[in-house]
Amino acid sequence: MNIKKGFVFAIDTNEYSGNFEREMCAYLTGCIGECEVGEEYVDITITPIFSKVIQECPDDNGCYRPCEAIVNESGVCHSVGIFFSVKPTDEQIEIMKKRSFEFNQEMINKSSYNSGSKIEILGFRLLEIINNIKSHKI
Fold first, then answer.
1. pTM of the entire structure?
2. pLDDT at position 109
3. How far is CA 13 from CA 66, 84, 107, in A?
């Protein structure tokens, strides 16, 4: 993870998250990175709720984006990590939780990738990044 300081809201799923992390972040927060992947999932009514607190970090190729596929507590890359410069509010967390349960249907509606796939939400974590990661279940 390239985030140096801040918070990561992690959504644990049943599938490899590298196939959908940017789309999920766009749907949950209305924010996308430099690559603009997930633009079709942005809801401009929620973008202002998140735009000032989302943190963009470079990926391995130097492209700045607000999220990353991350490992879950079992060490498998089945989680989406959304980067925040400050701790997300309870309202922001509730919006992301609610929308995460709607995401699979949104993927089916907008993408051929998800045909036959069922992304299930298994849980949520809030990670604080200082010099190490401290995980907090929410």
1. 0.90
2. 82
3. 18, 20, 14
